[in-house]
Amino acid sequence: MERDYPPIEDHGIIGDLHTVALVCRDGTIDFMCAPRFDSPPVFGSLLDRGRGGRFELSPVLNGARLKQLYLPDTNVLLTRFLSPDGVAEISDFMPVGESDHVRAVVRRVKAVRGDLRFCVRCAPRFGYGPETHRARGEDGCVLFTPRDGTVAARLWTTIPVRFHEGDAVAEFTLRHSEAATFVFEVGDVSARSPASAPHYVAEAFKRTTNFWRRWIGKSTYRGRWRDEVHRSALVLKMLFSHPHGSLVAAPTFGLPEALGGARNWDYRYTWVRDAAFTLYALIRLGLTDETAPFMQWIAERCAEEGDGI
User: What's the whole-model pTM score?
Assistant: First the structure.
């Protein structure tokens, strides 16, 4: 499916404290660096729709209204397609705390109303785009292998797929209330994956929603803008790197203020100014668990430079 470059505001974000993925309102994951924030992108069509790679998933509905929202007090993203011919919903999340070596994106699509036709295309790219790879697999598991022979990504799917130029593609129909699931993994995928378990998606969903709700439940904010404040806090939390205790200024790179502009820097670094504002906001909310590891990180950097705090 050919698509123009969508506006940034047409995206939701999901993450697991190692990296994040951007999900467009049309159901496409078009930006994801994995397995870490500073890794090359496996999906980058937001920057280069020809060579960037993407994970498309959407119903075949003409003129559908698109809407995105989050499950309350979580970073589980819902993308809804509303049409007189039917209603479809995609649930997207990244499981938290499962592995330090593999990052996973869980996608569950459901026909909420009506019998609906869907299209899916999982098209990862490696080496910032031009590096070739091949796709192979069976029994619901697809392996994506770059030319160096290492397996770099894996897709678990509950529906049969076919292969086209290194991509996994399929068209399928879901009847009313039926669902299909996809789990995309990046990193060291040579070991056995928990995603191969029969009830993995349901269990990962429960663990992930409980994690986010426990964390935001520590907030002491009781003002009138609770939903907006907590949503902002949850987004800021996704910018933290669990292994390092620091946070990125933004999880993206190469996005100028205007097409052809020069302000297209790599923001996947810790900017002390932005980090200070973030920590101040979280302290005001009573979410002080985030301050200790990052303050330790600042102290270590200052010691290396010979400066005090």
Answer: 0.91
